[in-house]
Amino acid sequence: MSFAEFGGPEVLRFVDAEEPHAGPGQVRIAVRAAGVNPVDWRIREGQILKAHPIELPSGVGLDASGVVDEVGEGVEGVEVGDHVFGEGSSTYAEFAVLSAWARMPEGLTFEEAAGYPSVVETALRIISQVGVQPGQTLLVSGASGGVGSAVLQIARDRGITVIGTAGAANQDYLRSLGALATTYGEGWVERVRRLGQVDAALDLAGSGVIRELVELTGDPQKVISIADLAAPEFGVRFSGVAGSVPEALAEAVDLISRGKLHIPVEKSYPLAEAAAAHIDSQAGHTRGRRVLVV
């Protein structure tokens, strides 16, 4: 899957491309599933090129799971035939090169595994950046998607109280992940206040709530956004550059293996329907993850 110009989902093309090969420190996988992330369509639209510079035409996708079929120079601890999940480039494809990976935890399907890499890295990064501590309360705006699902569970595992906002249909889902839940829309700030004092806040949906999040926390330094490019206008940090993906994958394996992290796959799409997956992802209201099956 590729695009030759920035634009809407219609610029995506299913094309024949040369097979990539694993360079030093990389592995190549036969892709079984690829995660669909908001960053994918933001890059396709040309929104965040400072964090993700690309040359056109470009492939699409960062996350994938699959079977190792080529091991690059200097790589140890992984063999051809291993089932892995991780992050690389141009993962909406039959074959993809990964620069960070981990063996899939037992019991995880390829579709499930493809939904974890970027999501868990992002969740761990922004929890750290916002500085929330055990015993404090974290507000998560737009909490039902992949990153929100991971944030809620990781925060609860660390002894952090979480308030999550989402649509009416996802209230029970948020509660099932251990969050105090409320809907967005008119009056949401007061509904949050009734649930408790907010020590830090994360904007995951980019729905124009930065001003209110600063009001609720009392400090723009206690708010992080991954979705609103206008956040710096309010003194709020926009977090878009990944930290250590190998460390995040190792923590994901630990959490999944301990039964502390599960991100459901809301919908799977054939690879040829990547444009439809982007449309649905951009529309929001996701519960968990969307993935492409190869």
What does this structure look like?
It contains 9 helices and 14 strands. The protein starts with a strand and ends with a strand. The protein folds into 2 domains: 2-115 and 264-293, Quinone Oxidoreductase, Chain A, domain 1; 121-238, Rossmann fold. Helices cover 29% and strands 25% of the residues. The protein has helices at 38-45, 110-114, 117-130, 146-157, 171-176, 188-195, 210-217, 245-257, 274-283, and strands spanning 2-3, 27-36, 58-59, 63-71, 83-89, 95-103, 137-141, 161-166, 180-183, 200-203, 223-225, 237-238, 265-270, 289-293. A hairpin with a 5-residue loop joins β5 (83-89) and β6 (95-103). It is globular and about 55 Å long. The mean pLDDT is 94. The protein is of the alpha/beta class. Strands 2, 4, 5, 6, 13 and 14 form a 6-stranded mixed sheet that branches. Strands 9-8-7-10-11-12 form a 6-stranded parallel sheet, sandwiched between helices. α3 packs across α4 and α3 (117-130) crosses α8 (245-257).
Count of distinct strands: 14
Rg, Cα atoms, Å: 19 Å
The CATH architecture category of the largest domain equals Alpha-Beta Complex
Unreliably modeled segments? none
User: Helix proportion of residues, in percent?
Assistant: 25-40%
SSE string: EEHEEEEHHEHEHEHEHEEHEHE
CATH topology of the largest domain: Quinone Oxidoreductase, Chain A, domain 1
The CATH class of the largest domain is Alpha Beta
Largest sheet: 6 strands, mixed
What is the CATH homology-level superfamily of the largest domain? Medium-chain alcohol dehydrogenases, catalytic domain
Protein name: Oxidoreductase
Main location: cytoplasm
Subcellular location: Cytoplasm
Pfam families: ADH_N (PF08240), ADH_zinc_N_2 (PF13602)
